[in-house]
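This part of the workshop introduces the protein records we will be handling. A record pairs a protein's sequence with a compact description of its fold. Comparing a sequence with its tokens is the quickest way to learn the format. To make this concrete, we reproduce a full record directly below:
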Amino acid sequence: MPSIYDLKPRFQALLRPVVSFLASNRVTANQVTLSAVGISLIAGLCLYRWPTETWALLLIPVTLFIRMALNAIDGLLAREHQMQSHLGAILNELGDVISDAALYLPFAVIPGIEPALVVVIVILATISEMTGVVAVQIGTQRQYQGPMGKSDRALAFGLLAVLLASSIETGLWINLYLGVVLGLLILTIVNRARSALAEVNV
């Protein structure tokens, strides 16, 4: 199914000059990966501490964009500048789920949002990434299908943060919105599992 992840090659092309600069200055892919986790933790803590402040809400989409850029950069450094490593693979996968939890769980303390919905979304997001990784164990490629992959989640929560920062009135729509995200995450898990199994059975 369509996903924002499909735009990744174009995004990476724009970042190649930055990647070349970092590589020439001996910045490693793992350092970039850990930086993405660090800024996610800081932004999440800010939202948790000041959940109704406009600046804290707007910090989320900014951080999500920076995180997406850093994730693309670390991948390019690893593949195109001979920085691939087993440690890097582990940091990439763990970094994604840690960053997701850090950035999205604080939404649970925002007035008008059902905390359980946010918690379940974070759990399902972790399961969706685990499904993608487990595919490798059965002999297929890492699965990245949508419709609610990492980049799609970033768009969904970034948009929600912007709406909340614009002082839009909270209400049932927020929880319905999160309910849609939850449903799409379930579909994502199913799609990734089916795709992996289909590759095995070819």
Notes: The chain has one domain: 4-200. Helices lie at 8-24, 29-49, 54-80, 86-104, 115-137, 150-165, 172-200. The longest helix spans residues 172-200. The domain at 4-200 is CATH 1.20.120.1760 (Four Helix Bundle (Hemerythrin (Met), subunit A)).
